[in-house]
Design a protein that fits this description.
This protein has one domain: Rossmann fold (3-Layer(aba) Sandwich), CATH 3.40.50. It contains 13 helices and eight strands. An eight-stranded mixed beta sheet has the order 3-4-2-5-1-6-7-8, with helices on both faces. Strand 6, helix 9 and strand 7 form a beta-alpha-beta unit. The chain is elongated and about 85 Å long.
């Protein structure tokens, strides 16, 4: 099976708040460490990669180096649309175009135009050319599922309107890239919750409907370990309902009542984690009944993700790919 990292373009999306940016950084780092010249694309004026990799925040639209073989760029849809119209308009200056009613009219009258030009920018990054470095892999930290499907469907929308000319040519190239399984793969990120898993399945249906494509993989983020066997759970229940001896209370320097409350609370906490893990694995089973690959990554304890956390996840993911 062709590896995810052997593609030219990876689109990462899923429900909001499930860790898409972390997974884009993880996959980008993994590809770079494997020797692939990789760029991570953030859509919508985001520059979270610079902060995550602890490098200076770049100017809008500038490529910034994150590490060996790894860089990032943020696409501002408004700026991308302005540059696109300027290129189509020849010598018309960007300042004049932006100040005229043409730009505002076009942006308002052409739904999906910003999504299309964002996809054109991404397509250009997959190609080597004058003034453009060669990237082996482009990883897109995409928007949430609904917006991502709108962005991916924009070439078809505009292709049906503009059948000739430069717009038609670009939309055709983008659509060919998105439909080519040898060059492009789609990855959903989810938490092991009912809503996030349902959204991943809806993404699969949307890809089939719009592009006749399927998810290559679903990365399930934040999995808790399954620590206890059925026999151990029975013992935990006994401990939770049991009593504490005087010697045990004396050893803990608490009264028997206080010691009993602490033991019961610890047993309840252990049971709650076990039940949470069991629920998560039930959600994994929903995904594994489908044709795509399911890759589970562990929950990272701490206040927030940092570059060391990304490196840890990259090592975990490397074992599964």
């Amino acid at each position: 099976m062709q590896s995810l990292l052997d593609r030219k373009l990876l689109i990462i999306t899923g429900k909001g708040g499930v860790g898409k940016t972390t997974m884009a950084a993880t996959i980008g780092l993994l590809a770079a460490e494997a020797g692939r010249r990789t760029i991570i694309v953030e859509v919508g004026e985001q520059s979270r990669m610079a902060e995550l990799f602890d490098v200076p925040t770049p100017a809008a639209g500038d490529e910034t180096k994150l590490g060996r073989n790894l860089s990032s760029i943020s696409i501002d849809p408004d700026r991308a649309l302005l540059e696109w119209l300027q290129a189509l308009g020849g010598r018309v200056s960007g300042r004049l175009l932006a100040s005229s009613g043409t730009f505002q009219y076009f942006a308002a009258a052409a739904p999906g135009a910003k999504e299309l030009v964002s996809m054109v920018k991404i397509w250009q990054l997959t190609r080597a050319g004058r003034g453009r470095p060669r990237h082996d892999l482009v990883v897109v930290d995409g928007p949430a599922t609904g917006h991502a499907l709108g962005m991916l469907g924009s070439p078809q929308t505009f292709g049906a309107i503009a059948r000739v000319g430069p717009i038609a040519g670009q939309t055709r190239h983008v659509e060919e890239l998105l439909k080519d399984p040898a060059r492009t793969a789609y990855v959903a990120v989810a938490l092991a919750t009912e809503m996030a898993v349902t959204e991943a399945l809806e993404l699969q249906e949307g890809l089939e409907r719009q592009l006749e494509r399927e998810l290559a993989a679903v990365i399930v983020n934040g999995l808790l370990p399954r620590r206890f066997s059925p026999a151990e759970m029975t013992e935990l229940a006994r401990i939770e309902q049991g009593s504490v001896s005087r010697d045990q209370a004396r050893a803990s320097k608490m009264s028997a009542t206080e010691a009993r409350a602490v033991v019961a609370a610890a047993a309840r906490a252990a049971r709650a984690v076990h039940e949470r893990s069991r629920f998560q694995h039930n959600q994994l089973a929903r995904l594994r009944r489908r044709s795509f690959e399911v890759l589970g990554l562990p929950f990272l304890w701490g206040e927030g993700i940092d570059i060391e956390g990304v490196r840890h996840l990259a090592r975990q993911l490397d074992r599964k790919l």
